[in-house]
Design goal:
The complex is a heterodimer. By secondary structure, chain A is of the alpha/beta class. Chain A has one domain: P-loop containing nucleotide triphosphate hydrolases (Rossmann fold), CATH 3.40.50.300. Chain A has nine helices and eight strands. In chain A, strands 5-6-7-3-8 form a five-stranded parallel sheet, sandwiched between helices. In chain A, strands 2-1-4 form a three-stranded antiparallel sheet, covered by helices on one side. The radius of gyration of chain A is 17 Å and the shape is globular. The N and C termini of chain A lie far apart (38 Å). Chain B is mainly α. Chain B has two domains: 59 residues, no CATH class; 201 residues, no CATH class. Helices cover 74% and strands 1% of the residues of chain B. Chain B is globular, with a radius of gyration of 22 Å. The chains are: A alpha/beta, B mainly alpha. Chains A and B meet through helix 3, strand 5, helix 4 and helix 7 of A and helix 7 and helix 8 of B.
Chain lengths: 230, 267
């Protein structure tokens, strides 16, 4: 599964990325690399386009200028779906997906976690209840969390679901958009610990935004200020 | 052609027009303010129908396939455009999508009925082609505007779900096929409902017309059954086509949801 990369080679390489809204450049000339073990904080005032940058990195929005590469290959060489399974964006607004994936009645958290494996890119893999139990333990939640109805989760519970849903797919780069915005302080600390644990494995990196400047400095090793690229 | 029905003259038509006074009186009594639009609507209806009567009378004497096909094409184009005019949100190419879907669906279904089922000689005989096509178009149009509207609204409302799936590595089809299915289902509902209660709640206009014109009720019923199957097939094909074309437009080959292509219709 892992891509063998030389120590100096970056996992995610962003070259000269630019984003335009109408005639106005939101940001341009954005270049950075994410190396194995890296955690980069993305900072900028709200409205500066942090979310749009993350959406561009996974091609949810078309790239207007510049390029992005994962392990030396661009997304079309990977195939967009395969690329997104390695470079995974976890949106700020976490939603339950079970109703969209199939027309079933409301599903539980566990249904949400399991149904992702029905997607073509993950057909060779299987849902692993043990790893989910372990992570839930680390986050201070019991197994009963798995039986909650996906559509009725609180904002914080939905963020936990979205994080677990992404982590279990074993991506190599995580793009976390305000991952703890709806969580209480205690759970935030636990999420940070879990993510640090996750980052310890080789060939993993993350990019994170947070409205909490303290969290950015606590959790990330270096910061990229989008405001400088106007 | 011998007819065993009572021909309505212009005098009798004027007498029927007096019925509109019921509406006008009601509007005046209750101060609904509908008097003017009622009169305009009534006038338009009369003029349009009389005109189309003359057009049809002329058309039925034609035996040039090209002229008849040209008229059929104009009818199809009007249906295609009207289907889009009832939707809330538009995107570039939506008119072509609608035209293509209406044209393909109605041509296949009407063609099959003319050549395969009723076996009209010649195959373009306007006395059969034009009314059959008209009925198929009317219903396909409704289905297409319903299905198209539901598909686009579904994507807008479920945007977060669709994009979450895409971000998790779903293909565009995996992320949006629930919306496609739902739109086709919604588009088909009126056709299915009308078949359910056919004959119990509603006596279809074509059948009533044939009976008034002196046709044997059983013969008229058989025609109506053929028509209803044509309508159901035409609507299904048209909805399927237009929703798939819209899907291909709004979900890009790079597995992106392109809601930025949408714009609100002018009210």
């Amino acid at each position: 599964m892992h891509i063998s990369t030389a120590p100096s080679q970056s996992l995610l390489a962003v070259e000269n990325l630019g984003r335009q809204l109408g005639d106005r450049w939101l940001w341009r000339g954005v270049s950075f690399d994410l190396f194995s073990g890296d955690c980069l904080g993305l900072v900028a005032p709200s409205g500066a386009g942090k979310t749009l940058l993350m959406r561009n990195l996974v091609l949810l929005d078309p790239i207007q200028q510049g390029a992005v590469k994962f392990a030396g290959k661009n997304p079309s060489e990977w195939g967009v779906s395969a690329y997104r399974s390695r470079v995974m964006y976890v949106p700020q607004r976490a939603v339950s997906i079970e109703n969209a994936a199939r027309n079933a009645l409301e599903g539980t958290v566990q249904d949400n976690l399991m149904q992702v494996f029905e997607l073509g890119v993950y057909r060779q893999r299987q849902f692993d209840p043990h790893i989910i139990q372990t992570w839930l333990g680390q986050l201070g939640r019991g197994a009963e969390f798995l039986n909650l109805q996906g559509a009725r989760l609180s904002g914080g519970e939905a963020q936990i679901l979205a994080l677990l849903r992404a982590l279990q797919l074993n991506p190599q780069v995580l793009l976390l958009d305000e991952p703890t915005a709806s969580l209480d302080a205690a759970t935030t600390t636990r999420v940070e610990a879990l993510l640090l644990d996750w980052l310890r494995h080789p060939h993993r990196a993350c990019l994170m935004t947070s409205h909490d400047a303290e969290q950015i400095h606590r959790f990330t090793q270096r910061q990229l200020n989008l405001g400088e690229f106007v | 052609m011998e007819s065993d029905y009572i021909v309505i003259g212009y005098g009798q038509l004027a007498l029927a027009a007096l019925l509109i006074l019921v509406n006008v009186a009601l509007s005046a009594a209750l101060q609904l303010g509908l008097g003017k639009s009622l009169l305009i609507a009534a006038l338009r209806m009369v003029v349009q129908l009389l005109l189309i009567g003359f057009v049809l009378e002329w058309l039925f004497t034609q035996d040039n396939a090209l002229i008849i096909l040209a008229i059929a094409l104009v009818m199809t184009a009007i249906a295609g455009v009207s289907a889009v005019n009832r939707t809330q949100r538009r995107f570039a190419g939506i008119y072509w999508h609608s035209l293509l879907s209406v044209l393909t669906a109605s041509a296949l279904v009407t063609g099959f009925a003319m050549v395969g089922i009723i076996r009209v000689q010649p195959w373009y005989d306007p006395q059969y082609l034009i009314p059959l096509l008209g009925m198929v178009l009317g219903n396909t149009l409704n289905g297409i505007s319903l299905g198209l509207d539901r598909f686009v609204e579904g994507l807008v409302v479920q945007r977060d779900q669709v994009e979450t799936l895409l971000a998790l590595g779903a293909t565009r089809w995996e992320a949006a096929h629930a919306q496609v299915r739902n739109a086709i289902r919604v588009g088909m509902i009126p056709t299915i409902n009308s078949m359910m209660v056919m004959g119990l709640v509603s006596l279809p206009g074509m059948m009533t017309g044939q009976i008034l014109a002196g046709a044997d009720p059983i013969d008229a019923v058989r025609y109506q059954i053929v028509i209803l199957f044509m309508i159901a097939a035409g609507a299904a094909l048209g909805i399927f086509g237009v929703v798939l074309l819209a899907y291909r437009r709004l979900l890009s080959p790079d597995h992106q949801l392109r809601l930025d292509y949408l714009e609100k219709a002018n009210p």
